[in-house]
């Protein structure tokens, strides 16, 4: 057991203790009042009125069957809520503590600059062959699929990396089915090759495994086998010139490190309300979850690329006749080739190959480093439908991988028991299953129904204090996004429906659990900062019936609560939730590029 792992376990216990102490000190923790049967209407006798018998029958069924069944759900959600708030408190506490003490990866892992420092021109010819030999062979892979809008951005950014030309191989893996785009990408590669860059344009006859298959095939070339490290950038990612200079030294000087991951920044985070909300969500992910995992257990998920303008197909339906199919893969990171091979290479058994590879590498004893101050530009999904499908894929794939990896994690011999608990409990169970379950079931089902079931008991600490605590710990690491947090809460309420459906599909391996998603980018030119874009913009897409249906349900429950006052008044929240479902049901969020597909 390493010091970081022990510190992480101690901080987790402290987070749980602080949460429990706060609940006890405020008097919020009270389990004595489990089920209260309110006698309203129960005294009605059969002879008290002409149709009162149906009301008495309903009250009897409600108090004897409906309320007890729902009460079980309430307490299950309370347990999950506690798990969620402790996990969030732990992540934020580790992240804040690391920031306060000035913790950096260099304190735990050795790092020394190459070629006289990151600011030096690593590819200058005057350094000579002797100086260049000090640099390891690095291959940069750029998987592409019909990337008309962004292929020049990614290729140009990668070709601008500071690294000796004779020690760098750029591999463009083009699976495009559009002959015109394919020709443009090949010409772009030839143009850079004429400038002295060692750039390889690689294609394949089929598209088996999609991008995972392309990356796997790319590693089979003879020149690829000469490279010690492999950097991966999706087609819309634009690394800074010093990316390799800041990441590769970690791998060179720490033989147990498999991956160095950079943080994403977004070229379109202010384009619409949708992208602003996504930035709030992802900022917490990078600032809290990734930093906490890296600082304590040296483990986190290799992040996957963002998706735009998506449509589903089945994994079984391979073939070029299916347009724009792609996978979600990790990007903006550098892998040790030995670690990829040791973990079994890229696999397409789930829709989150990046996470799959990361977990398998961890179980082999490899460690990861997250560099929060190293930024790589990328895109956010700019339409609501694209974002929904992206989140479905992430949630479904993560839950399915949880199902597949439970036994592998338990029997792994190269990781400590604490890290096993962290992976199974925090990384998989709480984040992939508990979070979407409690968010949807409690706030979109049980609380709305409770206004019509007076016998149902909802503890105030579960429906008020815990959400407030979650809001606070989220805001602590996102002060610059504080103004969007209320809208983010409502948006996440809607997204919980999609995430829960995806998690169930992944856990049970339902028909849609292994669906693949199109990736279509827009490019920097579509996100001119001088262009004014409405926060709410109606798209040409037809209405989303699930969202509309839930909006009707929530508004009905809110109206019932307003007219027939009971023990609790949730109608303001329910009206806001109903409005959020309604607006998203009409696709009144996001942008509408003219060339975007629907």
User: End-to-end span in angstroms?
Assistant: 51 Å
Low-confidence stretches: 28-50, 116-125, 302-329, 526-539, 593-598
- Biggest sheet strand order reads 3-2-1-4-7-5-8
User: What is the percent of helical residues?
Assistant: 40-55%
Keywords: Cell wall biogenesis/degradation, Glycosyltransferase, Golgi apparatus, Membrane, Transferase, Transmembrane, Transmembrane helix
Catalytic activity: GDP-mannose + (glucomannan)n = GDP + (glucomannan)n+1
GO molecular function: glucomannan 4-beta-mannosyltransferase activity; mannan synthase activity
Enzyme class: transferase
Q: Describe it for me?
A:
InterPro entries: Glyco_trans_2-like, Nucleotide-diphossugar_trans. The chain is an alpha/beta fold and 598 residues long. The chain has 17 helices and nine strands. β2 (168-174), α6 (179-193) and β3 (199-202) form a beta-alpha-beta unit.
């Amino acid at each position: 057991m390493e010091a970081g792992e022990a510190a992480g376990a101690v901080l987790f216990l402290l987070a749980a203790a602080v949460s429990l102490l706060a609940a006890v000190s405020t008097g919020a923790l009270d389990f004595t009042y489990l089920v209260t049967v309110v006698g309203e209407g129960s005294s009605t006798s059969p002879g008290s009125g002409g149709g009162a018998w149906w009301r008495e029958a309903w009250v009897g069924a409600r108090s004897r069957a409906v309320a007890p069944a729902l009460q079980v759900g309430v307490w299950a959600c309370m347990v999950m809520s506690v798990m969620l708030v402790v996990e969030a408190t732990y992540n934020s506490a580790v992240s804040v503590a690391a920031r306060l003490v000035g913790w950096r990866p260099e304190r735990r892992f050795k790092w020394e600059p190459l070629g006289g420092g990151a600011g030096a021109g690593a590819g200058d010819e005057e350094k000579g062959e002797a100086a260049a030999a000090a640099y390891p062979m690095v291959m940069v892979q750029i998987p592409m699929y019909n990337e008309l809008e962004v292929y020049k951005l990614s290729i140009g950014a990668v070709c601008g990396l500071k690294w000796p030309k004779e020690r760098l191989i750029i591999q463009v893996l083009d699976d495009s089915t559009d002959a015109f785009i394919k020709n443009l990408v090949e010409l772009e590669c030839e143009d850079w090759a004429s400038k002295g860059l060692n750039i390889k344009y690689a294609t394949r006859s089929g598209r088996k495994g999609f991008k995972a298959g392309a990356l796997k095939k790319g590693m089979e070339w003879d020149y690829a086998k000469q490279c010690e490290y492999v950097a991966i950038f999706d087609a819309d990612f634009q690394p800074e010139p010093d990316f390799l200079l800041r990441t590769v030294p970690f791998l060179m000087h720490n033989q147990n490190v498999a991956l160095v991951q950079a943080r994403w920044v977004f070229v379109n985070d202010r384009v619409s309300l949708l992208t602003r909300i996504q930035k709030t969500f992802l900022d917490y992910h990078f600032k809290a979850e990734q930093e906490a995992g890296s600082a304590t257990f040296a483990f986190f998920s290799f992040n996957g690329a963002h998706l735009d303008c998506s449509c589903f197909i089945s994994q079984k339906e391979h073939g070029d006749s299916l347009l724009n199919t792609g996978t979600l893969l990790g990007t903006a990171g550098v892998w040790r080739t030995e670690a990829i091979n040791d973990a079994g290479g890229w696999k397409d058994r789930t829709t989150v190959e990046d996470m799959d590879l990361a977990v398998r590498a961890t179980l082999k004893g490899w460690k990861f480093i997250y560099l929060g101050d190293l930024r790589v530009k990328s895109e956010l999904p700019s339409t609501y439908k694209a974002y929904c499908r992206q989140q479905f894929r992430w949630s479904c794939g993560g839950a399915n991988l949880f199902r597949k990896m439970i036994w592998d994690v338990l029997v792994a011999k190269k990781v400590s028991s604490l890290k096993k608990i962290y992976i199974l409990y925090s990384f998989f169970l709480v984040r992939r299953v508990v979070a979407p379950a409690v968010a949807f079931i409690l706030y979109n089902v049980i609380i709305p129904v409770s206004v019509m079931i007076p016998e149902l008991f909802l503890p105030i600490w579960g429906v008020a204090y815990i959400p407030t605590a979650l809001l606070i710990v989220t805001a602590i690491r996102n002060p610059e996004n504080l103004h969007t947090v209320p809208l983010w809460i409502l948006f996440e309420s809607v997204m919980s429906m999609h995430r829960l459906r995806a998690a169930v599909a992944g856990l049970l391996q339902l028909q849609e659990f292994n669906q693949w998603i199109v990736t279509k980018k827009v490019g920097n030119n579509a996100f001119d900062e001088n262009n004014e874009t409405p926060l709410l913009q109606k798209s040409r897409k037809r209405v989303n019936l699930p969202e509309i249906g839930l909006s009707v349900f929530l508004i009905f429950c809110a109206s019932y609560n307003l007219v027939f006052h009971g023990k609790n008044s949730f109608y303001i929240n329910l009206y806001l939730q109903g409005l959020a479902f309604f607006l998203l049901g009409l696709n009144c969020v996001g942008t509408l590029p003219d060339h975007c597909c629907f």
